[in-house]
Design a protein that fits this description.
By secondary structure, this protein is an alpha/beta fold. The protein contains eight helices and nine strands.
């Protein structure tokens, strides 16, 4: 991310403006994770993980889980709120927090290397693509492909506006970007679509916006 985007993310944690944080394990993760066909011992990467409880659930399935998070407040909160005593040490450009099967690399996603992640078998991406500014989504995917093993699968969750809603701006519209960014390297399978209404992202606008939560399974194409 750009320096400005990094600062905005850091400030949201300092100001405790973290409404995006889910206070339970994501139900789509629980329902669709088995579709990746992983072994319990497989290593899993969670980008832009915040203090997500999804890390705990993945570790409970037997996975070794490594997240990356820019904010040290988020990394600290994850372990503190779950009453986990984590060790902490410098690792290259990152501060590594770890306990048992769970590790969080605290630092900039774009500083990650393949060596930092190790032999990752799958990625759980819960709306990271939606959260990123549209101008750097391509850079995000390009870097992700550089640091992941060639056979790595991705379970991608997005928040999008429905294609048939042409009456208003679409701040969450990323469906075409999913194809544009991922189709060259991955076979894309849309596994689930769920419609719901949320408050308009502009707090000055008092209306509900229909959105769609989608679940994609991305499998690398054969070279």
């Amino acid at each position: 991310m750009t320096g400005r985007d990094n600062e905005l993310w850091q400030q949201s944690w300092r100001d405790r403006k973290t409404d995006f944080h889910q206070k339970a394990v994501n139900p789509h993760l629980v329902k669709f994770w088995s579709g990746l066909g992983l072994a319990p011992s497989d290593r899993v990467f969670v980008p832009l993980c915040g203090k997500s409880l999804d890390l705990l659930w993945l570790a409970q399935q037997g996975h070794t889980v490594i997240g990356v998070e820019l904010s040290p407040l988020a990394a600290r909160a994850f372990f503190r709120e779950n009453r986990i005593q984590a060790s902490r040490r410098q690792l290259g450009e990152f501060i590594l927090w770890e306990h048992g099967r769970i590790s969080i690399l605290c630092g900039d996603f774009f500083q990650l290397s393949a060596a930092d992640l190790g032999d990752v078998a799958a990625v759980f991406d819960r709306a990271s693509l939606t959260a990123l500014p549209d101008e750097i989504r391509g850079d995000y995917l390009e870097h992700l492909r550089k640091i992941l093993p060639a056979a790595c699968k991705i379970l991608l969750l997005t928040t999008e506006e429905p294609d048939d809603d042409e009456t208003q701006e679409q701040p969450f519209a990323v469906a075409d970007e999913i194809t544009g960014l991922y189709a060259r390297a991955f076979d894309i399978k849309l596994r689930h679509v769920e419609s719901l209404f949320e408050a308009d992202p502009d707090p000055a606008v008092e209306r509900l916006v229909r959105i769609e939560q989608k679940v994609y399974l991305l499998t690398p194409k054969a070279e």
